[in-house]
Amino acid sequence: MLVPRTTLGSPPTHRAWCETASSKPPRRVKAPTGSTMPPVSHMSSASVSSTTVPISRPRLLEALNHQPIPPIIVVVAPAGYGKTTLISQWTEMRSTPAAWVRLGSEHNTPHRFLHGVLQAIGRQPDAPPSLDTALESIRRLATCQPGSVVVLDDFHVIENPEVHQMASELVAGLPAGLHLVIMSRAMPPLPLARRRIEGEVRDIQMQDLSFIKEEVGWLAESVYGSTVSPEMVSHLTARTDGWIAGIRLALASADAMDPQRTSSIMDAWHTQQSLDEYVIEEVLATLPEDLHDFILRTAFLPYLEPDLCNHVLEIDHSAALIADASRRV
Questions:
Q1: Which pTM was predicted?
Q2: I want to staple 11 with a disulfide (CB 3.0 to 4.6 A). Which of 95, 277, 281, 289 is the partner?
Q3: Which residue has the higher pLDDT, 261 or 108?
Q4: How far apart are CA 11 and CA 96, in angstroms?
Q5: Quick one: angle between helices 110-120 and 161-172, nearest 10?
């Protein structure tokens, strides 16, 4: 549930980072100028840039800034809903550092996961890092820079239960004055129920990230220069369920056309090639090999039903694969 609109003030002056011989300040995340984030180093703070036009989400930024800001923010939605863009813009407008960890499959061991977190907050561990080392570094960051943010991006790629347990212990040990943002395509398997009840977790989900009609109209006019009637705005919003990537693809295909043809172009949805490329690059390419193979081999089926898939592929675990696909995408 999003909070009512509030007025945002200017961020305070950036405070100095208290460096030690073994630390350096986390670099602040620069707000991206597009709806997606380009690849960055998996174990560093990220400076984000793009050549596309920025999509501003004032209602969501205001929701994130609603006081008091809880220690944990969880952003969950499928690919193409602007998770990374939103959090990048939010961290950029704040005055305190944001340590950004872009997680990858290589972080599926406890040591690699902790190493990524430590590097993002400016620590360079000489030995294999421990949980105590990570918690001490996080406490130091919270003490030197109250209000600092640690972002765990693409948490859905973490599949190792040992890393899930490590992340749970990091969450349990979060110091006061630090905010942890977890972004994922699926709800992270972390014990957050009690903290949600106590108001220590703010959830931003797909229904929150989905574009509403006013945002679709703004995007069409401000970004693509298209004059779209209120009826077509409603139609496009309903047709895409507010999916930002789909809206941008539809508007891009209509952008160079006569405005009078916008309606027919959107109805025809002449963006199939772009949609195919998006699905391949942003969804299929990130899946484990067995799930990637399953989706490709069942693509011709009219629907995915475990018994049917088992029969066609001559396997016996389609139900688990379908559940995994639903969780991830």
A1: 0.68
A2: 95
A3: 108
A4: 9
A5: 40
